[in-house]
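Incident log, support desk, overnight shift.

02:14 A customer reports that sequence design results differ from what the structure should imply. Their input is reproduced verbatim below. On-call engineer (initials T.W.) acknowledged and began investigating.
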């Protein structure tokens, strides 16, 4: 049996008529830049997330960069970021001549905690970028309280958790990406809500910030040819917005299917002593962008090869923590030992997770994992 890590083709076939029609309409309209589909998607995503302002852009990395630019941070300002995450989160900090300050993450949730962040605070700290890794939220209430106390901006990296819901101590619920000052997300094809190319968006409830973000993403102009600030050129392609308009309608169902697959994995793998299955935290739903297990006793790479030989792909997110990447060694300030990030990079393995997984495939995958451990 040949398994896919992500089955975008199978997903497309189930909505082919809608997707083809949406793309056809854009092509025949000739409005390829800032066409009606972009505005339609913006409004639909505002409604879905509950965010007052959604600003589409070209990709998730641009979203993070634009967010930091819109906050007016200056070279040398420090931005706290987890060491265990995708490179883009810290890359944009260095690109803007800011200082990434790397902190460790929780070994069970894989997410940064307020305690991690507290260790990194200095007189130069201006912002925090919590990453909602693999599909569930960081514990945002203490992070927001800490940020408020110390006058810090919070930029949520929500590229992997769009649709996840965070519950505050008083029972209030908000979607990830709508809690901090700015939320950033990606529509890379393999994301839970993915387009057929690159795409991204920023979210905020602050009207002044929203206007600054729009200007920043549009060459620093609010009025054509009148440039108030230095900006960039980052916009969501109309064709991609048309695809996203179709797929957004199915996002809740996609995530239901992912959770069902995750439950199957956990039910079948949690009894294996050498595997630690993902922890579901009480304050957040999990939309399972990835289903990531930890393998004990140095057997991760052996399991990965064994699965590959059986036609089962798997991925290591991330094989090298950010503090060990050459790009960051000279510009970052590690705030602590970062031992958990190092340990995770040596033990995590993500199994196939997508909307087209069926019971037969899940049974095959889990059976092979079990057979590896005897």
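02:41 Re-run completed on a clean worker. Output:
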């Amino acid at each position: 049996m040949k398994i896919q890590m992500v089955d975008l083709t199978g997903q497309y076939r189930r909505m082919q008529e809608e997707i083809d029609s949406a793309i056809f309409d854009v092509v025949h309209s000739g409005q390829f830049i800032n066409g009606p589909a972009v505005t339609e998607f913006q409004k639909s995503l505002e409604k879905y997330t509950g965010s007052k302002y959604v600003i589409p852009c070209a990709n998730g990395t641009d979203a993070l960069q634009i967010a930091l630019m819109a906050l007016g941070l200056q070279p040398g300002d420090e931005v706290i970021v987890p060491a265990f995450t995708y490179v883009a989160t810290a890359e944009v900090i260095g690109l803007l001549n800011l200082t990434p300050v790397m902190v460790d993450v929780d070994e069970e949730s894989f997410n940064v905690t307020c305690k991690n962040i507290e260790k990194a605070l200095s007189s130069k700290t201006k912002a925090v970028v919590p990453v909602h890794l693999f599909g569930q939220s960081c514990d945002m209430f203490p992070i927001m309280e800490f940020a408020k106390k110390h006058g810090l901006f919070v930029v949520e990296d929500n590229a992997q958790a769009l649709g996840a819901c965070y519950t505050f101590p008083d029972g209030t619920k908000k979607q990830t990406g709508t809690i901090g000052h700015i939320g950033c997300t990606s529509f890379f094809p393999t994301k839970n809500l993915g387009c057929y190319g690159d795409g991204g968006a920023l979210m905020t409830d602050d009207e002044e910030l929203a206007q600054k973000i729009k200007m920043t993403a549009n060459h620093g102009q609010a009025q054509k040819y009148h440039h108030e600030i230095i900006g960039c050129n980052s916009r969501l392609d109309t064709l991609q917005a048309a695809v996203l308009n179709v797929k957004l309608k199915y996002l809740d169902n996609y995530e239901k299917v992912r959770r069902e697959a995750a439950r199957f994995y956990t039910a079948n793998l949690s009894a294996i002593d050498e595997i630690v299955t993902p922890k579901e935290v009480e304050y957040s739903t999990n939309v399972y962008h990835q289903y990531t297990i930890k393998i004990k006793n140095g057997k991760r790479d052996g399991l990965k090869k064994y699965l590959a030989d059986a036609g089962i792909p798997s991925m290591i997110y991330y094989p090298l923590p950010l503090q060990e990447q050459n790009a960051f060694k000279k510009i970052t300030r590690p705030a602590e030992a970062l031992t958990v990030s190092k340990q995770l990079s040596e033990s995590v393995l993500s199994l196939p997770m997508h909307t087209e997984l069926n019971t037969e495939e899940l049974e095959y995958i889990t059976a092979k994992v079990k057979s590896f451990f005897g």
